[in-house]
Specification:
The chain is mostly beta strands. It has one helix and four strands; from the N terminus they run E-E-E-E-H. The chain is globular and about 40 Å long.
Length: about 80
């Protein structure tokens, strides 16, 4: 089984096969950006299907630097009992 590796300045969303209720995202994925100083930063994406009051369908969500996920662990006070995504 191969693992998906994002290319610089691209993003990818995959359907969330673990979604069990409406609070879980419909899609999740990653983005890889090349910053102005030349370094690369990987981001975690989560997205939900939405509909406006005028019945326009769209996708909206959150983007967070992937390093934040590694820093928030069950052992750290900030991450105790929380799911950062």
């Amino acid at each position: 089984m191969s693992t998906y590796t994002p290319k610089p300045n691209t993003w990818t969303l995959f359907p969330n096969k673990y979604k069990k209720d409406e609070t879980h995202p419909d899609f999740s994925g990653t983005a890889m950006l090349t910053l102005p100083d030349g370094t690369q930063a990987e981001y975690k994406l989560t997205a939900w299907k939405r509909v406006t009051k005028s019945d326009v369908k769209f996708i909206g969500g959150f983007i967070k630097i992937k390093e934040a996920q590694r820093e928030l662990t069950p052992e750290s006070p900030e991450g105790a009992g929380e799911n950062p995504w």
